[in-house]
Amino acid sequence: MSTDKLFDPLRHKEVADTPEERVRQWFIGVLLSSGAPSHLMMSEASMSFATKRWRADILVHDRSGHPLAVVECKRPDVDLDSAVAFQAMRYNMVLDVRWLMLTNGGRTMVFRREENEFKPFPHIPSFDQMLCPQ
């Protein structure tokens, strides 16, 4: 593993340069470019469900501080399969978000909650689009 470091603007510190971390930092840049304010995002966001402890790669909050979107990042060689989607859905049991995003840097899948189910969304939404109810 490389001893190089990447700067995480959300954690305000240098972190180990790994393939997954590169994907996370790239997607943080995508979210910032889409208008998401850095103070409304967290990387490696901890949460608990019963006795389980989980960490979401990226969590985006709305302007009131409520969870809005969870992003699950994977290394570029990891397929975005049902196991990855299930991992993001587990986070949703705790967070109750409107948006789920899965990315490996080469492919990104976006889902928007409509009523009680997540449906595919055709592109990465801007922050303003994320805030709009259906």
Question: What's the topology here?
Answer:
Elements: E1 5-8, E2 13-16, H1 19-33, E3 41-49, E4 52-61, E5 67-73, H2 82-95, E6 99-103, E7 108-114, E8 117-121, H3 127-131
Parallel strand pairs: 5-6
Antiparallel strand pairs: 1-2, 3-4, 4-5, 6-7, 7-8
If you had to describe this structure to a student in words, what would you say it looks like?
With 134 residues, the protein is of the alpha+beta class. It has a single domain (5-131), classed as tt1808, chain A (Alpha-Beta Complex). The protein has 3 helices and 8 strands, in the order E-E-H-E-E-E-H-E-E-E-H. The model has no long low-confidence stretch (mean pLDDT 92).
Termini distance?
A: 43 Å
Helix and strand string, N-terminal first? EEHEEEHEEEH
| CATH architecture name | Alpha-Beta Complex
Pick out the low-confidence regions: none
Number of strands: 8
How much helical structure, as a percent, in the residues?
Answer: 25-40%
Strand share of the residues? 35-45%
Mean pLDDT over all positions: 92
Within the CATH hierarchy, at the fold level, what is the topology? Answer: tt1808, chain A
* Rg (CA only): 14 Å
Number of domains: 1
Sketch the major β-sheet. 6 strands, mixed
Structural class: alpha+beta
Number of helices: 3
Spatially, the strands of the biggest sheet line up as 3-4-5-6-7-8
CATH C-level class: Alpha Beta
Q: Note the overall shape.
A: globular
